[in-house]
Structure prediction request, 305 residues.
Amino acid sequence: MKDFQAFKNTRRNFLSNMAMATTAQIVAAPLFARTANRIDKTSIVTVGQIIDQFISEVPGGKLKETVDTLKSGSLNMAVKGIVTTMFATVEVIKKTIALGANFIIAHEPTFYSHQDNTDWLEQDPTFEYKKALLKDNNITVWRCHDYIHKMTPDPVTLGVLKKMNWEHKMINNNPNLIQLSHQTLKDIIFSLKSKMGVDELRYHGTLTESTNKVLFIPGAAGSTTHIAAIKAFKPDVLICGEVEEWTTVEYIRDSRARGEKISLILLGHIASEEPSATFMLEWVKEKYPSISSKHISAGNSLSFL
Prediction:
C-alpha cells in the first residue's frame, strides 16, 4: 500500500487540495437537445485542440505523468460531436455512434485498469470487441481524470455538494468537510439515496446516532487517505465512493469498538464522481458551442437484491 506522501500533488492526496478550496460552485448543465446542423462546418476543431485548451486552464498545466491519455483514436481527428461520461462502456460507445459523435471524454479507465495497460488483455474477447468497436467507428476516447482533479476547488466534489444542497454548509470553505445539524446517520443515508439517485447504500454505524460533521471523499482515494483524514478532522461520518472492505471498513469498526464516534457510508464510485462528466459537458458547451455535445450516463454497474 502506498503511504500518504505518495498521494502528494495528486487527486488522492485530497488533504493538500482541501487547504486551497474556495466556495466556487458548479451549475449543472441541461442535457443537449440534438440538432442536425449544429456543428459549424467552416471551423474544424481537432481532438488535440480541445485537450490542449482544457489543460491550459488547469493549474500547473501539462502533467509529465498522467493517466489522462488517448485510449483510442487520434489527436488530429476532426471532432463531429462530443459525449462526456464516467465510463466509456460498450453501451455508451454504441449510443455515441448513434448520435453521430466521434469524441468521448471519460473520467475513468476504458480498459479495466487505472493505467489502461492492455498488454495483458491481448486476444481477450471482450477487450478485442471493444477495441474494434472504437476503431471501426472512428471513435476517439480521452480520459480526463488527473487534470479535472487538479482544479481548485475540485469540480467533482462540488458537483456532489450541489446535488445534496450542501454547498453552503462547508466548514472553512472546505468542500470535503460539511457541517449539518440535527441529522442522524439514517437521515443522511436517506438524503443521499434520494438526491444522488442510489437505490441502496452500505454503511457501518448506528442509524439513530447524531451525525452532523461529514467528511466526504469521492472515488477510490484509498485507506491511507481515508484514515489520515479521519484522524485529522475527526468527523462523525466518512462518506466515500468505494473502499476495500478489509481496510477502511475494519479501521472504522475497530475505532467504534474503542469508543470513537465515527460511521461510514459507501456512496459508490460512480455516484460520487458522476459530476466530473457533467462538469466537462458544461465546459465543452461554453468553449465549443458549435459542436454537438451530450452527457451519457454509464449508469450503475451493480444491482442489489
Q: What stands out?
A: Residues 268 and 302 are 10 Å apart (CA to CA). The radius of gyration is 20 Å. The domain at 34-150 is CATH 3.40.1390.30 (Udp-n-acetylmuramoylalanyl-d-glutamate--2,6- Diaminopimelate Ligase; Chain: A, domain 1).
